[in-house]
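Fill in residues.
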């Protein structure tokens, strides 16, 4: 495998570092019972993530900034 391909596959520790959250938060967000779980691959007992999928998930779940609209 090339280095670029390896960089796209992340461990739970990598995801925690990427998102600046705790490892516990990552494991909790991977649970199937979550409303909108982190996209995860489960090869056996391991968890692996696609960098692209995690960043898309983050963008999709981001809260939009609500702007006050002046009423006439």
């Amino acid at each position: 495998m090339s280095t670029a391909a390896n960089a796209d596959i992340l461990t739970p520790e990598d995801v925690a570092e990427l998102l600046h959250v705790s490892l516990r938060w990552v494991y909790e967000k991977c649970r199937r019972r979550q409303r909108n779980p982190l996209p995860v691959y489960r090869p056996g007992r391991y968890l692996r993530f696609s960098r692209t999928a995690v960043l898309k998930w983050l963008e999709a779940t981001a809260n939009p900034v609500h702007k006050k609209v002046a009423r006439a």
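The chain has one domain: 3-60.
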